[in-house]
Amino acid sequence: MIQVSIQILNPKATIPERKTDGAAGYDLSACLEASVTLPVGEVVLVPTGLAFAIPMGFEGQVRPRSGFSTKNGIIMPNAPGTVDSDYRGEIFVPLLNLGKSDFLLENGTRIAQLLIKRYEVIAFHVVPTLENTDRGTGGFGSTGK
């Protein structure tokens, strides 16, 4: 188990939680003083009222909640968003409304999920050429259907 410190920046904030024992993500909720309208086709940064101290060697990945996204047509345009281990500010979730009408977002609505993932620090090694593979430089559909 990884220990992650959390700071509650707003008393209306909801501490992230998993809804089932098998869930990988911890739900993040909107922390709003009043309801916010998400206009069709626009991005709105939604506060969570929370800040985290993620341990070095880990990152926070903020991802859409599948039910919220598919039922309401609301996505995260930067998904997954990364929260670096040295960031100590409030977590905001950018939401883009792709639905057919404006969406009224209420305080406490579960809008995203947070996963804490280990990452590797890498060293780039510059070479004049790369080794060949069967695929080579083919991309964007080059492997067929």
TrEMBL record:
GO annotation, biological process: dUMP biosynthetic process; dUTP catabolic process
Instruction: Outline the extent of the dUTPase-like domain.
Output: 12-144
Q: Which reaction does it catalyse?
A: dUTP + H2O = dUMP + diphosphate + H(+)
Q: Name the source's superkingdom.
A: Bacteria
Give me the residues that bind substrate, please: 65-67, 78, 82-84
**What's its job?**
This enzyme is involved in nucleotide metabolism: it produces dUMP, the immediate precursor of thymidine nucleotides and it decreases the intracellular concentration of dUTP so that uracil cannot be incorporated into DNA.
Q: What is the protein named?
A: Deoxyuridine 5'-triphosphate nucleotidohydrolase
